């Protein structure tokens, strides 16, 4: 049996071999393994230099200053630091936060925890295409709104937000704008100055880097204040303590440098593969596009299939690694809160699959997926009537 076709790049990407090669230089005794905070010897300085050059690679991708990059353990921690750190540091100015119901759990659950702490949250509901309208955000803004948090690219739908327009509305009342850009690296151009972003979260493993490392962009001018969540040696200018993982950081830097150089070419290739999949499905009835293709990245395609259950379809597609977005509790399967959030009926939400493509997806993968889908849909739908 051949290995499954991997179409779950939005869940995680494999580490690019060029990134793995760089990482291997910062682990063993003959590599640069020292603590980057060790100031008393040359080995420490070399590690520090490695960290700082990776910081520049990440900053370059978003046209920021390296001093605006804070290393974290991933986008989850970056989201926590952005929301909780900002709300706590600015509580004297206001206690109101605006976000949406289809953000990643790292934002949704952090905002809920802030509600428990006494902050107020307005939860925006997106349009059917998954987008938040700037006019809708304007209505939600209050005198005491200090922060707006909206994602660049939704991880289940692939839909892209109009960040520049949303930033403008946010800034009109003096609030700060946080963007979760975990799904946007190498997919969109992310010039923080031009877009007007104050805080932006990143993860390496969604962009061919290693798991367990990420970063938060924190604007310096005007100065964005955060309260630290993790206390210790005062690393990262006091915003996030903990010994820096040189190998992870070097890997993330390399991954982001490759994303800057090759992101457009990757996306063009992936768009052709996505179109090929859509073309191959065009003569099958009862397929709905949950992804509004005109306003989405080409590497994520969410489709609903009439007359089948998502879990049965997934079972029938064992050879294709895909995601449903549904959550399995012990008693029942709950549809994805994102698909519910855009108003999809429960049955369709349960019969939805997310196809996500990437750097190593081939035409043969698409052909195998089409064959498997046809076979599975035929079988399941015949059984259903
Ligand atoms: C994957 C993801 C995260 C979480 O990132 P980790 O680095 O795995 O913590 C947050 N937000 C979005 C949009 C994501 O896709």
Written description of the protein model:
The chain has twelve helices and 14 strands. With 385 residues, the chain is of the alpha/beta class. It has a seven-stranded mixed beta sheet with strand order 2-8-7-6-5-3-4, with helices on both faces. Helix 4 links the parallel strand 3 and strand 4. Helix 3 runs parallel beside helix 4, helix 5 packs parallel to helix 6 and helix 8 packs across helix 12. The longest helix is centred in the last third of the chain and has 36 residues. The protein is globular, with a radius of gyration of 22 Å. Pyridoxal-5'-phosphate (PLP) binds next to helix 3.
Describe the secondary-structure layout.
Elements: E1 5-6, H1 17-23, H2 42-61, E2 69-72, H3 75-89, E3 96-100, H4 105-116, E4 120-124, H5 134-140, E5 145-151, H6 163-172, E6 176-180, H7 192-195, E7 199-203, E8 214-218, H8 246-281, E9 287-289, E10 300-305, H9 310-316, E11 320-321, E12 327-328, E13 333-334, H10 337-341, H11 346-350, E14 352-356, H12 363-384
Parallel strand pairs: 1-11, 3-4, 3-5, 5-6, 6-7
Antiparallel strand pairs: 2-8, 7-8, 9-10, 10-14, 12-13
Helix pairs in contact: 1-8, 2-8, 3-4, 5-6, 8-12
This protein binds pyridoxal-5'-phosphate (PLP).
Features:
single chain, 385 residues, alpha/beta, Aspartate Aminotransferase, domain 1, Aspartate Aminotransferase, domain 2, 2 domains, three-stranded antiparallel sheet, 12 helices
Ranges where pLDDT stays below 50 over 5 or more residues in a row are none
As a percent range, the share of helical residues equals 25-40%
Number of strands: 14
Which small-molecule species are bound to the chains here? pyridoxal-5'-phosphate
User: Structural class per helix/strand content?
Assistant: alpha/beta
Number of domains: 2
Principal-axes geometry comes out as globular
Distance between the ends? 32 Å
Order of helices and strands: EHHEHEHEHEHEHEEHEEHEEEHHEH
Please identify the oligomeric state.
single chain
Question: Remind me, CATH topology of the largest domain?
Answer: Aspartate Aminotransferase, domain 2
Largest sheet, spatial ordering of strands: 2-8-7-6-5-3-4
Average pLDDT across residues? 95
Q: Would you state the CATH class of the largest domain?
A: Alpha Beta
- Could you give a short account of the major beta sheet? 7 strands, mixed
Radius of gyration based on Cα positions: 22 Å
- What percentage of amino acids are in beta strands? 15-25%
